[in-house]
């Protein structure tokens, strides 16, 4: 009986030890899982940035070999390498020591997007896009959107199908690389294509090659229930604002006011607020689908 008594006590003691270890691990895992996500640390310019208008050819003679400067200048002038050389005058910053985000107008943080895992936002008036993860800016770059005759539709969209190379619905001679469709019926999507430095597309959102490749991997495709029905939509995309086609290029204002194009966090919040319930509902469906797959 004594042996049985000691054995029972020993088993009970071991059980308490195991329960204590489990609780300790659970607490540690909870602390680990609830730890705030680290925001991206971008390098700020060493000095306050101002802008000036310079002759393109003269500036290129001195800086053509500096790729880090060129990346910033292409983005500032909403253009690419080939079309940059065609411009008579361009906007140039006084200091190139910072990361690109500090020369672009989108805010680094948007509290209203904290619960949104991924979203892409295009500003029509600024001709710039930004990608956010849980309210933190992770990528930004220039775009050339729809021309006056064929404006890009605004509002909330979701990425659907994608293709590394496809043919334009406007002209079958146009090859669209790294294309991600956002409006299937109208054939609107973002993709790599030349950036002349102003809205020139047939309603699509043109991107530099590196930016198109990034968004191609960043965004999610839709999940189809069958050939006719969508089960889960892709990544949310918001296009907002209006471009003044009859005025000068907006970024030329930077030479007189460095903050002329800045998009405050409050403006982004106003634009996304009406769509948050729909975005979160689709996000919930995607998470459930992924859990089911696993």
TrEMBL record:
Q: Which domain of life is it from?
A: Bacteria
Q: In which pathway does it act?
A: Cell wall biogenesis; peptidoglycan biosynthesis
- Keyword field contains Aminoacyl-tRNA synthetase: no
Which residues participate directly in catalysis? 191, 204
GO cellular component terms, A-Z: extracellular region
Domain L,D-TPase catalytic: start-end pairs = 118-240
Which Pfam families does the protein's record reference?
A: YkuD (PF03734)
Sorted alphabetically, which keywords does the UniProt record give?
Cell shape, Cell wall biogenesis/degradation, Peptidoglycan synthesis, Signal, Transferase
Give the signal sequence positions.
1-23
Gene Ontology MF terms in the entry? peptidoglycan L,D-transpeptidase activity; transferase activity
Q: Which GO terms describe its biological process?
A: cell wall organization; peptidoglycan-protein cross-linking; regulation of cell shape
- Keyword field contains Metal-binding: no
Q: Which family does it belong to?
A: Belongs to the YkuD family.
Know the name of this protein? Answer: L,D-TPase catalytic domain-containing protein
Instruction: Name the species this protein comes from.
Output: Flavobacterium oncorhynchi
């Amino acid at each position: 009986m004594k042996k049985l008594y000691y054995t029972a006590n020993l088993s009970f003691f071991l059980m308490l030890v195991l329960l204590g270890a489990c609780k300790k691990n659970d607490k540690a895992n909870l602390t680990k899982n609830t730890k705030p996500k680290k925001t991206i640390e971008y390098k700020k310019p060493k000095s306050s940035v101002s802008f000036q208008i310079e002759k393109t050819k003269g500036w290129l003679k001195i800086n053509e070999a500096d790729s880090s400067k060129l990346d910033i200048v292409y983005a500032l002038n909403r253009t690419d390498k080939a079309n940059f050389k065609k411009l008579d005058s361009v906007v140039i910053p006084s200091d190139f020591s910072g990361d690109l985000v500090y020369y672009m107008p989108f805010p680094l943080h948007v509290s209203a997007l904290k619960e949104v895992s991924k979203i892409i936002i295009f500003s029509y008036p600024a001709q710039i896009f930004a990608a956010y993860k849980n309210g933190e800016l992770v990528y930004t770059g220039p775009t050339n959107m729809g021309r006056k005759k064929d404006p890009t539709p605004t509002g909330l969209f979701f990425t659907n199908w994608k293709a590394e190379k496809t043919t334009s619905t406007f002209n079958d001679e146009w090859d669209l690389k790294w294309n991600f469709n956002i409006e299937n019926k109208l054939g609107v999507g973002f993709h790599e294509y030349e950036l002349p430095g102003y809205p020139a597309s047939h309603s699509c959102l043109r991107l530099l090659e590196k930016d198109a490749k990034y968004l191609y991997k960043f965004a999610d495709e839709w999940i189809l229930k069958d050939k006719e029905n969508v089960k889960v939509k892709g990544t949310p995309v918001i296009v907002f604002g209006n471009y003044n086609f009859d005025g000068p290029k907006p970024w030329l204002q930077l030479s007189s006011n460095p903050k002329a194009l800045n998009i405050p966090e409050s403006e982004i919040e106003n634009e996304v607020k009406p769509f948050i319930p729909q975005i979160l509902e689709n996000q919930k469906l995607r998470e459930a689908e992924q859990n089911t797959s696993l």
